[in-house]
Amino acid sequence: MTHTAGQAVGWHGCDDEQLQAAKADCAEITVPLDYTHPTGKTIKIAISRLKATDPKHRRGVLLYNPGGPGVPARTLTPLVAKAAPAVAARYDLIGMDPRFVGSSQQLDCRWPTGFVGSAGHDRRTFDQGVALAKDLASRCAVHKSVLPHASTANTARDMDTIRAALGESRLSYLGSSYGTYLGALYLQLFPRRADRVVLDSVVDPALFGPDLSRTQGPAVNGALRNWARWAARNHQKLGDTTEEVLATVRSIDRGPFKVGRFQVDARMLPLILFSVTAGDDDAAYSSFSADVRVLRDAALGRDVKLTPVLEQVLSGMSAPDAGGAASAQTAIMCADRAASRDPETYYRDIQAHRTDEALFGPLLRNLTPCSFWPVAPAEPPVRVGNAVPVLMVGATGDPGAPYPGQLSAHRALTGSRMVTLRGAFRHTVYGGLFAPRNACIDTAVNRYLVTGRLPATDTTC
Q1: What is the mean pLDDT of residues 88-109?
Q2: Which fold has domain 17-105+150-210+381-460?
Q3: What is the largest CA-CA distance in the chain?
Q4: How many other CB atoms sit within 10 Å of the CB of residue 142?
Q5: Distances in whole angstroms, Cα of residue 318 to Cα of each of 163, 209, 262, 311
Q6: Rounded to an integer, what distance in angstroms lies between the CA atom of residue 249 and that of residue 269?
Q7: pTM of structure
Q8: Which tens digit of pLDDT belongs to each residue from 270-296?
Q9: Do the Cβ atoms of 32 and 165 come closer than 8 Å?
Q10: Nearest of 63, 64, 67, 59 to residue 86 by alpha carbon
C-alpha cells in the first residue's frame, strides 16, 4: 500500500484567471517522489478539471499535454474546450503541471540564462558553450535528491495515480510534441488503462532525450527553404528567388553585431532564426520575414527598429531563466536518457555537418548541461513497443518532430493508425491549438475521440 492509494480529490477554486473564467476546478494530487519506494517521500501534482458539458453522454476524462518538456498544462484546458467543443461535451478535460513544473513544486536551479545556444563557427565558441553547460549543470546539484525522479516515465506514473484518484477505470489522452512521448510511455506502462489516445506530431520514442534535436537538421532546413520560397514569391525584399533569400540569411551569420540595445553573436543567431519553425502560414512567414530584414540591416550596421517578436526573443535571451522553466525542462531530459559526457563527441559531430547543416547544425547538435549533470538517470529509457489502439496525426515537413521519427513511432505502436498532413511545414496539426486548423485532421481526431472509430487504414490530408 502506498501513501497515495485511495486518496480523495479535494477540488477547490483555481488561482488562474482563464481557469476561473471557464469555471474550472483545481486540486493537488499526492504522488510518490520515487515509485520504487512508494511509501517514501511524496510530492504534489497540480491539476485542473473542466467538467464535460454534456454530462448525460460523458465518457470519462481526457488528460492534455501540449509538449515541452517542462510546459505547465494545468491552465490550458480552456483552449482544448474552445478548439473541440464536441470533445469537451463528452469528457472532463484534465490539465496537469508535470512534476517539478509550474505549480507542481517547480524545480528552479536559478540559471543566469536559459540556453547554451549554438556552438558557432569555431572551437573558441564551442568551448565557451562547454563552460556554460558545465556551470548550468553545477547549479542544479542542490537538487540532487530529486533530479533522478524528474523523468517522463514518472510523469506517466503520475498520470495513472491521477486516473485512480479520479475514480476512473481508464484514461483518455491528447498529447502533442513532447506530450506524444509522455503518451507513448503511458501506453507502454499502463496498456490496459489507456482508453482513447491521440498523439499529435509524434517524437521518436526510441531517441527522446537531450540529444534528440540532432535529428532535426534536415527538417529545419526544409522549413527554412519553404519559407524562402514563400518570401521570394511574396516580395519580402530579401531576394527574388529562393536561393537569393537563403543567401541573404547566410550573409547575416557573422556576428557579433548590435540589434537595437542588444548584441547578437554566432551563439545566439541560429537560435533566433530557429523561429522559422513557428508556423507555415502567411502570418507566421510574414512575421519571420520582418525579423530577417531587421537582422540583415543590423548586421550591415544600419539603425533598426526591433519587431515585437525580436524584442521578446532578445529580451528573453538576455534574462535569467524565468522561474526555472529551462532548468526543469533540462532536468526532465537528463532523467530520461544519459548523454555523452565527452564534449569531443559533440564537436566532431558538428564538424562533420558543417556543410549540410551550416546554420542550424551547430545549434541542434551542440551539447547540453546533461553532459555534466550531477546525477545519472534512475532507470533505463522505457522501450516502446505495443499494440494498443492509438491515433497519430502529423505533417510531412514537421521541423519539431521530423517525419522519419513519426514513422519510427508508428512502427513501434503497431495498433496505431496514422493520418498525415502532406506538404505542411508545421509542428502540431490538431485543433488550431498552435498551428493553423486543418479540417481533415480535426475531423479524424474528433471522430475518434467521440466515437472511438479509428481510420480503417493510414490516410493522408
Answers
A1: 95
A2: Rossmann fold (3.40.50)
A3: 69
A4: 13
A5: 41, 26, 8, 11
A6: 10
A7: 0.96
A8: 999 999 999 999 999 999 999 999 999
A9: no
A10: 59
